[in-house]
Amino acid sequence: MSKKPDSDKMESFKDPFYKKMWFWMLIGSALFIIMVVGSIFANNNALSSSQKSDASSSSYSPSEDSEKSEIEQRASIAEEKRLKSLEQAVPSTETFSSTSTPPSSSTAQSKSSKTTSTPTEYLTALNKAVFYSSRMYMSKAGIYNQLTSEYGEKYSSEAAQYAIDNLVSDYNANALKKAKDYQSKMNMSPESIRDQLVSEYGEKFTPEEAEYAIQHLNN
């Protein structure tokens, strides 16, 4: 009877250690500790990488700002150079006025002096001459006679000559206009028209002006 307990004791010592409860409890505790430590390391790594990222981004901003500032400075310098070149290319207002004003001023003064020194009779004679040429298509000699005639305008010979000298007129065109009037209104022949154009008692055009009118009568 005393040998049975000894055999039970021997059987209990023969069981492997991994079948013991304490072994699995130890394994579980170790795994839990490993998981906790791993989680701590993971959080530390994430925090470190985040700090590095923030540091890199914060360190990037000053360099970016400095680059922008440098670009703006270069652009400002280039703009200043461009404005200076434009100022040098364009003459100043003072230079322009000093070079251009005197001639125009002297010209205006000379014109003004001519106008003021010309007698009023001469100027009115010129206005009459313009009317006789542009409205009545008269010849140069015809206008002069009309201005000086006792039965006409009664201007002095000097005033009439001033008007003729300063009158701008196309006497060929005037002769042609007169010739067409004689042809259409009085049904005159070309030779009769020629005689009337050059007659001392007629239109007083020159032979050359009368010839021009006859040559272009039917145009």
From TrEMBL:
Q: List compositional bias (Basic and acidic residues) regions by residue number.
A: 65-85
Question: What is the top-level taxon of the source organism?
Answer: Bacteria
Q: Where is this region: Disordered?
A: 48-119
- Stretches assigned to the Putative host cell surface-exposed lipoprotein Ltp-like HTH region domain: 122-167, 170-217
Q: Where is the composition biased (Low complexity)?
A: 48-63, 91-119
* Matching InterPro entries: Ltp-like_HTH, WH-like_DNA-bd_sf
Keywords for the protein's UniProt record, in alphabetical order: Lipoprotein, Membrane, Transmembrane, Transmembrane helix
Which residue ranges does UniProt annotate as crossing the membrane?
21-42
The protein's name is Putative cell surface-exposed lipoprotein
